[in-house]
Amino acid sequence: MINSEFRYAHHPKDVKNYTTEEMREHFLINDLFQNDEIKLVYSMYDRLIVGSVFPVSKALKLEPTDDLKAEYFLERRELGIINVGEKGKVIVDGTVFELGNKEALYVGKGNKEVIFEKDGTGQPYFYINSAPAHKTYPTKKVTKHEAEIVELGETKYSNKRIINKLIVNSVLETCQLQMGMTELQEGSVWNTMPAHTHERRMEAYFYFDLEKGQSISHFMGQPDETRHIFMKNREAVLSPEWSIHSGAGTSNYTFIWGMAGENLDYSDMDGIKTDELK
């Protein structure tokens, strides 16, 4: 079963007037990982698709939705997959890729069949991002050992974290999709702080590894007029190109960032001083 929805882009002046309910309706992506379901959210921010695949009692095949108007899902798209659960399998045009916890798979444009399965008795949680593609690049698995790893932050500022760049241009070639995973260390709760924006690409965050009963407050909006959305474990949020994207949890956690747009330079961003946020 595929559950899909479509979301428009928003002007920052309009967002300033949104209620809490409207902010959550337009930017929060919840109810991910429903039994034997593929959930897809097609966003008009760089046409990124954010979704989940949760095969519990049967294999699930990624099919095109009406929004794509395509013969098959990857006819004009590329796909990034990160497994945040136990060991699972992704079968791409007959080739089997085993994905363990926090391992990634890039699937290039033109592959006609993508199937998700359990591998044994464990339960995989497949988180996916997909963006339009103009060229076919090879399908490739990326483990944490193959990722580009950067350590940032300081304990005194509660933002000590490890950034795992998994599907990025310095690790493998893509058209525009970039994905990675940031792990907050124990005692640290702030991500992407100091904050920044990047006008040439949008971003989506997926939060997980959050203790039961805890919460994350995700901050977004223009730097001089921010808003926040309280989020639970295994929820995602869309971040427009004009918006900051930062968060603080009531405990440490991990999050996956996914980006699409015309720029593949990870360091291309406009920093904002923490004491200038409003």
UniProtKB/TrEMBL annotation:
GO molecular function per UniProt: 4-deoxy-L-threo-5-hexosulose-uronate ketol-isomerase activity; zinc ion binding
Record's catalysed reaction(s): 5-dehydro-4-deoxy-D-glucuronate = 3-deoxy-D-glycero-2,5-hexodiulosonate
Enzyme Commission no: 5.3.1.17
Record keywords, A-Z: Isomerase, Metal-binding, Zinc
Keyword Isomerase among record annotations: yes
Cofactor note as given: Binds 1 zinc ion per subunit.
Positions of Zn(2+) binding: H196, H198, E203, H245
CDD domains linked to this entry: cupin_KduI_C, cupin_KduI_N
GO BP terms, alphabetized: D-galacturonate catabolic process; D-glucuronate catabolic process; pectin catabolic process
Cofactor(s) of this protein: Zn(2+)
Keyword Isomerase: yes
Family: Belongs to the KduI family.
Protein name: 4-deoxy-L-threo-5-hexosulose-uronate ketol-isomerase
Species assigned in the record: Moheibacter sediminis
Gene behind this protein: kduI
